[in-house]
Write a structure and sequence with these properties.
Rossmann fold; six-stranded parallel sheet
């Protein structure tokens, strides 16, 4: 489906041409306005200058200037993950475009709607090795849902409308629009389509009632059922339907890391999340269930471990909107191709008609199964050894949850802090845990927090980060300060690449392979000095060394109306537990 002109696509009911001629850049901006875009994260350069000139003339779109293109694309992701709307970012050709690659790949892996716009060298220079030329269309083919290389100024309105439709419909994902500079400067009288039809693209999927009745029959005969649900529930806006389904069937729920928030973690049926660093009880329950309802998931290796042993003796039902995920990693008994909101909505109606009432508490249907799960919970709760003065990272996150009453939007970088955030901040609502799950891209946390804060200015947005991950896009403090984006950050600073150190300790005899981030010539010195770095950006940063000082410092951070950092020193010896070693099964889980 990736073609230069998308000849298979057809515009319908085009508005009659009227008004004055516009250049290609102005047409593009007018199209973005029509799609309801209110912010674009864009870094200018030679091949995208005309578009930036056009953006200066619009009052409907805010242009946020990141200090690195990767910061811009991660911010667009944060916006998209917080809202469900396509995030929009833009860069110039060549190195500007290639700096977007990690963020585009991240959006592709996690099914995040995004429209990435890049300037390109003039048409006559394409393929000639011109200054700052890369074949970005070709380069991104494996990591986008669809691509466009604009070849005719008159196609811009159709292409933009298609791009947003593709990015946001079905299984969401990133769409690329690459625009040569000469087309940006050409003029034409645009015709804006009121709707579009794309031959061969049918994102709406609705399952048959016969399939759902078969699923309900399986539930009726199950003695130990489990729901394993993921990011598809959130992207499908089906969290309310999921809650109702769980309460009507009284089946316990475990989510993936991407699915955190799709089911309230305070609910009696919640087992939090499963996988490599998920709860023991979630992993046990999913793997020992006699019926596993896999909803909006892809059987990722970090969830399944040794995939052929995953839920080895259970009957598996898989509901997903993307047919390519069905039987891809795990063969299932009953595959159901459907939009999740529709499928769960129909199931709830069928259950209601059959007399299944919603039960929020005191579940009774699978009493033996509940007793087994409760025993696992008591034997292996999420816990850590707290200390009197040293600050344990888990304690920081629990305190943040307490002080924000669980109502903040949390973003993370990638590493130990990411797992602890998922474990010790209890999430009740979708789109409140924003993390790079599939790609695991360090440097994601703070730019994503900026994007989420732009989208939700009235909510607390806090990046829980590590010192290594935060440093990768530290320059975005300048963006946040200058743009007045009051995203906060807590750096759990252990002076090491913590997750890699953990693997070194567990599997390499503690031998350090370039994982110390401090100054080896002065081990007493905190390096880099985030307090001084932040000062250079005009941002307040406090270093917290003692546990007794943490609550007051965190309150100052949360009360601030501006960008604020807490640099919290934590021990590097702490490990994220539980842990299932890569390629192993839930029975190999490490708990101590």
């Amino acid at each position: 489906m990736k073609t230069k002109k998308s000849a298979a696509a057809r515009s319908e009911a085009a508005a009659p041409a009227k008004g004055k001629a516009m250049n290609g850049a102005e047409i593009l901006v007018a199209c973005l306005e029509r799609e309801g875009v209110d912010v674009i994260f864009a870094y200018p350069g030679g091949a995208s200058m005309p578009i930036h000139q056009a953006l200066t003339k619009t009052k409907k779109i805010r242009t946020v200037l990141p200090r690195h293109e990767q910061g811009g694309v991660f911010a667009a992701e944060g916006y998209a993950r917080a809202t469900g709307k396509a995030g929009v970012c833009m860069a110039t050709s060549g190195p500007g475009a290639t700096n977007l690659v990690t963020g585009i790949a991240d959006a592709f892996m996690d099914s995040i709607p995004m429209v990435a716009i890049t300037g390109q060298v003039p048409q006559e220079m394409i393929g000639r090795g011109a200054f700052q030329e890369t074949d970005f269309f070709g380069m991104t083919l494996p990591i986008v849902k669809h691509s466009y290389l604009v070849w005719d100024i008159k196609e811009i309105p159709r292409i933009v409308k298609e791009a947003f439709h593709i990015a946001e419909s079905g299984r969401p994902g990133p769409v690329l629009i690459d625009i040569p500079k000469n087309i940006q400067n050409q003029t034409a009288i645009p015709e804006f389509p009121s709707k579009i039809s794309i031959r061969g693209y049918s994102p709406e999927k609705k399952c048959a009632d016969t399939e759902l009745r078969e699923l309900l029959d399986l539930i009726a005969s199950a003695k130990a059922p489990m729901i394993y649900c993921g990011g598809g529930v959130i992207t499908g806006n089906a969290s309310a339907e999921m809650l109702e389904f769980a309460e009507r069937t009284q089946i316990p729920v475990a989510t993936t890391l991407m699915g955190i928030g799709c089911f309230p973690e305070s609910h009696p049926l919640s087992l939090k999340w499963l996988g490599m660093h998920g709860t023991v009880y979630a992993n046990n329950a999913v793997n020992e269930a006699d019926l596993l309802l896999a909803i909006g998931v892809r059987f990722d290796d970090r969830v399944t471990g040794k995939v052929e042993k995953f839920c080895e003796h259970g009957t598996i039902v898989h509901i997903d909107i993307d047919n390519s995920e069905i039987n891809k990693n795990k063969t299932v008994r009953l595959p159901i191709l459907s939009d999740l909101k529709y499928a769960l909505g129909r199931l709830n109606k069928m259950l209601a008609e059959s007399g299944f009432k919603r039960v929020a508490k005191s579940q009774t249907r699978f009493s033996d199964w509940y007793r087994q799960i409760d025993a696992w919970k008591k034997e292996h709760p999420l816990s850590f050894k707290d200390t009197e003065d040293a600050i344990q990272p888990q304690h920081v996150i629990q305190l943040l949850h307490q002080m924000t009453k669980g109502e903040a939007i949390i973003t993370t970088g990638v590493g130990q802090h990411q797992m602890w955030a998922g474990q010790f901040y209890d999430f009740e609502k979708p789109r409140t845990f924003i993390t790079s799950a599939g790609l695991g891209a360090m440097g994601f946390g703070y730019p994503a927090a900026m994007g989420a804060k732009v989208a939700c200015p009235d909510k607390h947005v806090v990046d829980i980060d590590g010192d290594g991950s935060f440093l990768m896009n530290v320059q975005e403090l300048a963006t946040a300060h200058i743009e007045g984006i009051a995203a906060k950050a807590i750096i759990l600073n252990n002076q090491h690449l913590g997750m890699v150190v953990q693997w070194e300790d567990r599997f390499h005899g503690g031998n350090r392979g370039h994982t110390f981030l401090g100054d080896p010539r002065d081990l007493e010195r905190v390096y880099p000095d985030y307090v001084e770095i932040a000062k250079g950006f005009g941002v307040t940063c406090e270093r917290v060394l003692h546990k007794k000082d943490l609550p007051a410092a965190m309150k100052r951070m949360l009360d601030s109306k501006e960008v604020y950092l807490l640099d919290v020193m934590v021990p590097y010896t702490e490990h994220v537990l539980p842990m299932i070693p890569a390629g192993k099964t839930y029975k190999d889980i490490i708990t101590e």
